Amino acid sequence: MNLSATPALPGRPDPINPNPAPHVVLGTPVLAEPGPGEELIYLASGCFWGAEKLAWEAGALSTAVGYMGGTTPNPTYAEVCTGRTGHAETVRVVFDPRELPLEKLLQLFFESHDPTSLNRQGNDVGTQYRSAIFTTTDTQERTARAMIAGYEDVLRQAGRGAIVTEVVPALAAGPFYLAEEEHQGYLHKVPHGYQCHARTGIACPLPGAGPLG
């Protein structure tokens, strides 16, 4: 869809999920702020249900699903799915890099979807499924770009295309809008629910190391 030729949806002034419940698995506030030594990053890799589960299973301190990188304020899931809000389905991740290093988190991100697929993951098609990393520190941005360069070399050697993952500072991307309560911790609530991991099947190397199996 050509968003430049299609008027963005107007949205609304108030949050659609103003009083979220604690994380259904971790028990932490879904919008917890990072404490001393902790970090916040936003990851978009297609459908956010499976992506969130991977983050909490990897050791994140808090996760939440929502919408980011668009123009419509406080959009609903149905509105985001039209492609007329500009948002990507995004997972908000608070993590302790001493327990879950940034490089390992990004390795999981790259390996759990196809970062060479533009606005599509498997059967999920649209700008809301684009691959993006919304960073909150300069180190996160540098690490993400370095890992893209290293992974792209590996993917090209395997005959794959260029990585299309956006790397954008969170402040430039705009607000993270929390999704409806039914989407939070969805795959814990619906254990056999839909997951889309259109993986390349090719390991992403950590900085300074070869590909890991």
UniProtKB/TrEMBL annotation:
InterPro entries from the xrefs?
Answer: Met_Sox_Rdtase_MsrA_dom (IPR002569), Met_Sox_Rdtase_MsrA_sf (IPR036509), MsrA_MetSO_reductase (IPR050162)
The record's Gene Ontology biological-process terms are: cellular response to oxidative stress
The segment annotated Disordered runs over: 1-20
Ranges for domain Peptide methionine sulphoxide reductase MsrA = 41-196
Q: Which family does it belong to?
A: Belongs to the MsrA Met sulfoxide reductase family.
Q: What is this protein called?
A: Peptide methionine sulfoxide reductase MsrA
Q: Which organism is it from?
A: Actinotignum timonense
Reactions catalysed according to its record: L-methionyl-[protein] + [thioredoxin]-disulfide + H2O = L-methionyl-(S)-S-oxide-[protein] + [thioredoxin]-dithiol; [thioredoxin]-disulfide + L-methionine + H2O = L-methionine (S)-S-oxide + [thioredoxin]-dithiol
GO MF annotation list: peptide-methionine (S)-S-oxide reductase activity
SUPFAM superfamilies found in the cross-reference section: Peptide methionine sulfoxide reductase
Q: NCBIfam families of this UniProt entry?
A: msrA
Could you name the domain of life of the organism this protein comes from?
Bacteria
| One term under GO cellular component | cytoplasm
Residues of the active site are C47
Provide the function of this protein. Has an important function as a repair enzyme for proteins that have been inactivated by oxidation. Catalyzes the reversible oxidation-reduction of methionine sulfoxide in proteins to methionine.
Q: Which stretches are tagged as biased composition: Pro residues?
A: 10-20
